[in-house]
Amino acid sequence: MEQDKNNAINATIKDVARLAKVSIATVSRILNGKETVSPHLVERVMSAVEELRYQPNAVARALKVRESLSMGLIIPDIENPFFPALVRGVEDAAQMHDYSVILCNTDGKPAEEERYIRFLYNKRVDGILFTGGRYSDDNVAMLATLSIPVVLLDRRVGSQLSTVVTDNYLGGFMATEHLIKRGRSRIAFISGPPELSSVQTRREGYVQALRQHGLSYGEELVLPGDFTFESGHRAAARLIADGLSVDAFFAANDMMAIGAIEYLRAYGIRVPEEIAAVGYDDIRMAAWYKPSLTTVRQPVYQMGQCAVRRMLELVSGGVRRYSEEVLRPELVIRDSSGSRGGKEQ
Ligand code: RIB
After folding, report:
1. Which pTM was predicted?
2. Which Pfam families match (predicted)?
């Protein structure tokens, strides 16, 4: 067995032959789909491959019988409307190329991420599209050891694998600058999980917009959240409990923005008259909610399409493993960031 820099155990063809008690030539013939091997030997070799999670090197895979015409898509939260929209983009692009998609929801749990990575690899998918949860570094390192293409979606982790993201710094800047131009000067930030690159860059854009417009920024203006509706509720409660006299907030996603507005409204605080609100994603509910939510629209469908295109380029070979595509977000202005008088200016 070889142990690589990421401590991933890479079984070799020799390990497979030893466990299956056959020659290396027999293993090679079976993995390259030669018919002249007895079924019971094939069974022995394939169970050894499965047990050792043997990952044929790039050359062996290039010789493999044929693509499975399937790809894995790993997402962290099937209940957040952002991700079904991403799945739609992936699915439509995959079907265009006769590929099937195996969808895996991990609830952002590293153990679930690892389980699904191994599951998909053993199913011999041709590639994996991955949106990690909070603590995905080890799993991304493991993905980087696989001999199949992997594309990261939405969140940067390291720089070994192709990635498709939104320009979240620009998104955070636009959201905050919009509130400033609407005359708000004490703006809170409702954060998502701080470990995520998508959250870090939105926050950086928020801070830069405040500073560029000469407004004060302090840690007390940053409220913890985890991208859920409930955490938006909790953030609004904290705003009130801490006596923070803010006149606006920018939430790192729409679910938290809506949760915060619901709490403020129940507490008798009017949005946008007293506190203006901006979210992020532009989920379908954003336009229907009352007040309709000003938000930063992510090109989520395009993100899914780009990721599939990149994966297929890698499957066909001949391109570098690492590339980064940064898609442009768009500010969508609605009622939740109206003027203090509550009417659009
Ligand atoms: O709403 C879920 C969030 O997780 C989205 O903003 C998406 O960008 C991902 O980071």
Report:
1. 0.80
2. LacI, Peripla_BP_1
